């Protein structure tokens, strides 16, 4: 049985009015977490009701997959 990601990055990223937090298996730098947050932002269509909440993106990839984000 595998464990779930438990490391929550302390910084909440704001892209416009949308706020995104990042949860991973391992600690991240601010730049790495920002890349994941931007990927989450671009990956869906946001509505006005999404603006007042913090949305968490769970990253289940490893460090090699994170390096591919550039």
UniProtKB/TrEMBL annotation:
Q: Which domain of life is it from?
A: Bacteria
This chain's protein is named Uncharacterized protein
